[in-house]
Amino acid sequence: MNMNVPNSAPTGEELTKLREAAQQDARDLKAKIDRLDDASIELILSGARSHYAWTDKPIEDDIIYKLYDIVKMGSTSMNGCPARFIFVKTPEGKARVAKSLKPANVPKMMGAPLTVIVAYDTEFWKELPKLFPHEDRRHLFKDKPEYSEETAFRNSTLQGGYLMIAARALGLDIGAMSGFSNKIIDEEFFNGTSVKSNFLCNIGYADETALFQRLPRFAFDDVCEVV
Fold first, then answer.
1. What number of CA atoms fall less than 13 Å from residue 195's CA on the CB side?
2. What pLDDT score does 3 carry?
3. pLDDT per residue over 178-219, tens digit each?
4. Which residue from 185, 159, 178, 176 is spatially nearest to 84, judged by alpha carbons?
5. DSSP 85-154
6. Are 75 and 159 in contact (CB under 8 A)?
7. Whole-angstrom Cα distance, residue 43 to residue 163?
8. What is the DSSP pairing of strand 195-204 with strand 83-88?
9. Which of 47, 109, 148, 214 has its CA 20 to 30 A from that of 176?
């Protein structure tokens, strides 16, 4: 592997102009909208619910592409973007996912128009020259599988969180799932690769008749402190 610093990074006047443009973009965004209104926050987090029953309204492919275009802009360590997503919508794909599920979770998944396998590539760092061209950081991960996996898992979890919030922002409902066998998912979808599954997330348009009362949450003083 060529571990030299990649030459694709801008330098000099070009770099200065790019940085100035990025800084102005950030200022312009804050000038346009400095916070979400309370109703928007309620939609994506404070009033949102996890769903496990679904209407039969489909999710079109253009929404899936739009969803990813939002998710990909979320921050990750060194812009490593280790998450890999499989959007499962066909009966054949659903049957493969179903092999991994606990029995109680099968109807929850089969009823959703879309199930996303949120996964991560343990060799994500090989793409750093493209994603983080300022400095070659591959040496931080080369021959360090435990560190590579830890970094990939943490950041793919972040990206999975971005996926869930982005889906709600687009008017979709979500239901994340962990009651499945990662081993079976990995054998079905990632065999022979450096990719491993993290968690599943059903996405669709909810059937609210399956909801029950909201469960308790910790108060600030139970789990937080300001130091």
1. 21
2. 53
3. 999 999 999 999 999 999 999 999 999 999 999 999 999 999
4. 159
5. EEEE-SHHHHHHHHTTB-GGGHHHHHTSSEEEEEEEETTGGGGHHHH-TTS--GGGTTT-HHHHHHHHHH
6. no
7. 14
8. unpaired
9. 148
Q: Taking a C-beta distance cutoff of 8 angstroms, is the pair 82, 120 a contact?
A: yes
Closest C-alpha among 98, 89, 64, 69 to residue 172? 64
Q: Where are the CATH 3.40.109.10 domain residues in the chain?
A: 49-209
137-169 burial: b if 16+ Cβ within 10 Å, else e: bbeebeeeeeebbebbbebbbbbbebbbbbbbe
Residue from 113, 83, 114, 115 nearest 180 by CA: 115
Query: Running DSSP on this structure, what letter comes out for residue 56?
Result: S
Quick one: which of 180, 217, 166, 171 has its CA closest to 59?
A: 171
Query: pLDDT tens across 105-158, in order?
Result: 999 999 999 999 999 999 999 999 999 998 999 999 999 999 999 999 999 999
Please answer whether residues 136 and 2 qualify as being in contact, where contact means their C-beta atoms are separated by less than 8 angstroms.
no
Tokens of 226: 């300001």
Residue 161 has pLDDT above 90, yes or no: yes
- The residues that bridge with 110 in the sheet, in sequence order, are none
Q: Which CATH architecture has domain 49-209?
A: 3-Layer(aba) Sandwich (3.40)
pTM: 0.93
The predicted-structure confidence for 37-67, as pLDDT tens digits, reads as follows: 999 999 999 999 999 999 999 999 999 999 9
* Closest to 176 measured CA to CA, from 150, 153, 149, 157: 157
